[in-house]
Amino acid sequence: MYHVAAHHCVWYGECGNSPVPGKKYNCNYTGPPKPLPPDGYLLLTELCPGYDYGNKSLCCNVDQLRTLKGSLQLPLQFLSRCPACFYNLMNLFCELTCSPHQSQFMNVTNITGKDVMAVQYYIGQTFSNAMYNACKDVQAPSSNVKALSLLCGKTAEACNATNWIQFMFNTENKQTPFPIDPKFTDVPLAGYTPMNNNTYACNESLEDGSGPCSCQDCAKSCGPKPVPPLLPPPWTILGIDAMAVIMWISYMAFLLIFFGVLLGVWCYRKRAITSEYGPILDSNNPLSLNSDDPDQVNASCCETLGERFENGLRMLFSSWGSFCVRHPFLILFCCLVLVGASAGGLAYMRITTDPVELWSSPKSQARQEKDYFDKHFGPFFRTVQLIITTPLELNETYNPYFGGSFPFGSVLNKELLHQVLDLQLEIEGLVASYNQESVTLKDICLAPLAPYNDNCTILSVLNYFQNSHATLDHLMGDEFFIWADYHDHFLYCVSAPASLNDTTMLHDPCLGTFGGPVFPWLALGGYDDTNYNNATALVITFPINNYLNDTVRLEKARAWENEFIKFMKNFSNPNLTIAFSAERSIEDEINRESNSDISTVVLSYGIMFIYISLALGHIHSFRRVLVDSKISLGIAGILIVLSSVACSLGIFSYCGVPLTLIVIEVIPFLVLAVGVDNIFIIVQTYQRDERMPQEELHQQIGRILGDIAPSLFLSSFSETVAFFLGALTSMPAVRTFSMFAGLAVFIDFLLQISCFVSLLGLDAKRQERNRLDICCCVTLPEGQEIKTDGFLFQFFKKVFAPFILTEWVRPVIVMFVGMLSFSIAVVNKVEIGLDQKLSMPDDSYVLQYFKNMSEYLHTGAPVYFVVEEGLNYSSPEGQNAVCGGVGCNNNSLVQQVYTASLISNYTSIASTPSSWLDDYFDWVKPQSTCCRYYNTTGAFCNASVVNSSCVSCRPMTPSGKKRPEGEDFMHFLPMFLSDNPNLKCGKGGHAAYAAAVDLYPNNTGVGATYFMTYHTILKESPDYVEALKMARILAKNISESMDHKVFAYSVFYVFYEQYLTIMNDTILNLCVSLAAIFVVTTVLLGFELWAGVLVSITIAMILVNMFGVMWLWDISLNAVSLVNLVMSCGISVEFCSHIVRAFTVSVKNNRVERRRIMISFGLKNNFGTLVFSGITLTKFGGILILALSKSQIFQVFYFRMYLAIVLLGAAHGLIFLPVLLSYIGPSVNKAKVFAAKKSWSGTERERLLNY
């Protein structure tokens, strides 16, 4: 021990060289303090303003002050953003280095010659705790971590006052020239009085006018911690879901009323009371709830108008049908020309597979914000990622030489890390080929420090070891003990990923070879809390440059990604389980899925085609099978359906409208449903019609077309209008489908009433001449044949219709109301979104990647808060509205995002944003060595350059210490954005912020900028939607407080924005479609308002029941299912409109008889059998095949929904609607009855009136 008298120095000046590079030992000196030479005054004022008085007699000289300044550069750059914190820290070091009272609290413990080799420093526990408390919350904006994580040798959470000061005084940090042993005590110890100077709390102002630290850097400066609002409790009644209770009560009330009315009517019938309200259950009674006797009153004006409209349509279509049969080849030629011309547009067909184009409207908010981001900062980089686990059990507990115990997961076993590094290096060495050019990773990767450092960004724990096997194997020790190895380096790097020199005995850098930090939450997975050593997965990410308008470079990137995918598919290592994905993976797999499902779709359509071709024929005997069959006509009908699809695709392709896979997959199914139904109606109506005396074939077909074409026109036109109105939506996939579907359905109708009618005429002539189908040159000998009705016709006429209209079966309507009540109760429980796993084939490698991503990843996507151009960053007002340091507004952008991160479970904002503005202010401070320039040229001089002509950017004056404003701000900002971080300046902005600031030409001002943070981990669609919603709310609040436009942007927003409004879009689309169907149905039924209402009610019930099926069958609501719902609206018209029209044109006197006639066919149009055979059976076989598809999206959204559409449509069209019409169907149109009696009187058809 070397004791000295009180109030004397223990050292003065610098002597011998220390083992620490660039450092020297202080010279032993026990005399009184010496006056500081004048050339050190400015330096003393800068570092230790408390000593700037009197003759400045100190225990240090100018060299020691310079050494002190150099040693404190990193703490200054990271802690000076909080003035109180930095003041206390400087107090600690100034007292140590220069205090004239050194001997009171310092004890020299080792002197060699003139060199002081070691000292003890007695520090007050109160002082050390106060210093730590003032600094513990200070942020490092560029790293999104606490500054102490970079300055304490441990994570900020593990750092405390004692181990922080011990770390700063340890020679292992490469800044301290000799050991300094801190002794913490608040009372005199061993004859020494501890240094216990006054301190400032972080929320206090300093005497020099510096304000308190910001809330972001000082919890004491904040108000109460924000508390997220409580989630609204689920809506319940007596603890049961409210919707379920309400619908159960409603259903019970309906049953009570319904059966009460039935009972009342039954009582009246028993008393034989006959009145206007006679027994509706007596199917033989000509009266119902309202009088249907056409002779009771004269026809109303509306009925007369309806009859004339109906008659006009009949006459028009009769004439047209007759013309088509008389001039078949002219019609066929014209149709072929028009189809050929329209389908010629397929040469210009463009299929969109870009997910952004599919799911996001160019006018949507997310799309516009994406375009703005891409324009000012470049598109978000492409991602190639691996998630690596191991089946081996290699868990270990590491016990460092200096104490402690840390469990390490299997994936952090060194031998496994070597194998992973081999894989990573192999991937780096992949060479792809594009247009006979070689493409390597370095050609396309993100290299933030290029051209100074062209190393690719690789976010991997191996970058903690500089991607080197030798560094991974680096250890320090002797033959008995290992003092430090890769475990120690890993533990240090996960706490200080931006460090250039770890504090272990290895002294290896943590900073990645690309010049940036690798944050552990991006490179590791499956850990708990922040115990990264427990990780069960390694995550390796290769960010690849994306290109906005450079197709060649983009295709090079895609070519390399393809090579990567090939390599990974062939890679095998029994010790590693690897899930991987590239940016192009999802698009590739969707395309592969579409190609692999071609066979399934073809088989599905093939079955439907075969059924149609065979079912169209009405075979009277085995002898006439080849004559009565309609195979050629069926094939022609199918070709017409496909031609209508081709015309629709071609016409829109002429207009430059791109196709989507949804259009290609769904529209043929839809048009086939509509078209085949029409084909069956036309053909089978002709087959069951008897030609009247003196009536020629063209007149007969014309008459038939006059009877049925208005019904075909009704269904087709209402579907067309509904689809075209559905195109008003902003969702591209739905809009495109609606446009193509509407046109295809209408063209199909036009071709069927022209081309198909002409072909029917030709086929009828062939059949009358006994020529064989297909082989029409062969004639069958004449024979006596008896016409018989088909099985389906007989079944519907004699079994089905009487059965469902009997008085004890008709109450089946209550079952449909029950289904409706259930569906309404669960409609708000249908999940919104699209599980991305469903878009992949069952055997896709991407499925495993999605699974691992959900299971292991701990951080969500980056989110950027973009400040649009126009904000004046050179003014204090503009700076304070954005920054997060001292003097910034409490509601600034950075502060609001920081506050949101405190309640991340609610806001989905994971961390404090990286702020280029705050780092720029720290970088430009005159105390820092970061901002320098050559006084000869004015060019920027990096902190690592040793040159006497390099001078500080700003003077050490009160004004120089303030933030730069005006011209100063713009003068130094480009230097900051071009400065690479190094040992002497960790605040260089090139790597972190070069892309974050969009400077005006010639650096005349700051345009758009962004402040980046991360979302919390997002696993399911609702998580993504909620994150988007909360980010927008936060951006809106920031915009309002700044009075300047700020928006939040993340790469997934364009895909999930649709789910913010999809429920509203669904309601709007379906309501508009229903309204269109109602209007068209009402008009085309001859202004039958009540009939239009009943059709709309039935279709609405089918749609609501579809939601019930979606909930039961786990089908979520998204653009794909919305397309199917819009389609089901159209197909439902087919199930309902024909039957309702048949009812309205029937001339029977009561509803039951009119309904029975129309459902069973009678002697007119067998719409019941036609709906069943034309839609239900046709689709059923094809739908079942879809269940065999490898595509999950086919199985869920096509097989399940199509099956539900057909079954619900058939049930409502063939059971519910007939019963409903028998109860409350519209009264008979008296004008139509009168017209029918008048026109049929005296003809063969007069008997139809009394059938």
From TrEMBL:
Record GO terms (molecular function): cholesterol binding; lipid transporter activity
Subcellular location: Endomembrane system
TM annotation in the entry: 245-268, 329-349, 598-619, 631-653, 659-683, 704-728, 740-762, 808-827, 1067-1087, 1094-1113, 1125-1147, 1167-1189, 1201-1224
InterPro entries assigned to the protein according to its UniProt record, in alphabetical order: HMGCR/SNAP/NPC1-like_SSD, NPC1-like, NPC1_MLD, NPC1_N, SSD
Keywords: Cholesterol metabolism, Disulfide bond, Glycoprotein, Lipid metabolism, Lipid transport, Membrane, Signal, Steroid metabolism, Sterol metabolism, Transmembrane, Transmembrane helix, Transport
Highest taxon, organism lineage: Eukaryota
Family: Belongs to the patched family.
Protein's recorded name: SSD domain-containing protein
